[in-house]
Amino acid sequence: IYALAFLTGAKTARHIKRDEWLSLFKLPQFKKVTTIQGLKAPLLAETKSILSDSKAAVVMYKARFDWVKETEARRILTAEEALDMWQLIIPHVRPNWFLQKDFEEFMGIFVADEKSKKAVSKDTWGMLIAFIDESNNNRNGFVSSYETVSYTHLRAHETPEHLVCRLLLEKKKNKHKH
Fold first, then answer.
1. pLDDT (tens digit, 9 = 90+) per residue, 56-87?
2. What is the DSSP letter of 77?
3. Which residues of 38-58 are buried (b: 16+ CB within 10 A; e: fewer)?
4. How far apart are CA 37 and CA 2, in angstroms?
5. Helices and strands of the chain, counted as H and E runs
6. pTM for the model
7. What is the pLDDT of residue 153?
8. Least buried of 43, 54, 87, 152, by fewest C-beta within 10 Å?
9. Which among 85, 80, 79, 73 is positioned nearest to 13, based on CA atoms?
10. pLDDT at 47
């Protein structure tokens, strides 16, 4: 569905406008399609092609933020919406991310904590891919390259994005010690 929405340029989730739908059939790989069933093979091939190209996969990933938020006035996703999307998308965009399970576990706890409202901005959405790539590119030295600082110091300056990264790194570091 995400690839279909991406290829048609769909602006909002849960529906594709007529002109967006028709734009799909202007693409060479879809010109001979005459039935909904006929869409399956070329759509699957195109999805695999996008996901096999790291840069194209990131473009598709980043476009999904705007697709899910549905309106220009809405500037954030709830943490729950983001987690649902991340669980669906990240395994395909970055299938070998070694922190995937830890991230989902942490975000599940983060979402379940009802003490405050949590949201994910477009910047945070985009930064996750950079974080994934950084952690995967430097897997062995990634955790050890970060030093612990006092909680009070972090609390004064920490953004939600930094909190997520810090907690993931601390958890991974503690696992390596045991």
1. 888 888 888 887 776 777 788 888 888 888 88
2. E
3. ebeebbeebbeebbeeeeebb
4. 17
5. 10, 2
6. 0.63
7. 52
8. 152
9. 85
10. 86
Q: What is the pLDDT of residue 148?
A: 54
Q: How far is CA 174 from CA 87, 150, 170, 177, 178, in A?
A: 24, 16, 6, 5, 7
Classify residue 152 by burial, with Cβ atoms within 10 Å: 0-12, 13-18, 19+.
exposed
Q: Dump pLDDT digits (tens) for 133-156.
A: 888 877 665 555 555 555 555 455
- How many other C-beta atoms can be found within 10 angstroms of the C-beta atom of residue 24? 21
CA distance 60 to 106: 25
Among 177, 84, 85, 172, residue whose Cα is nearest residue 136: 172
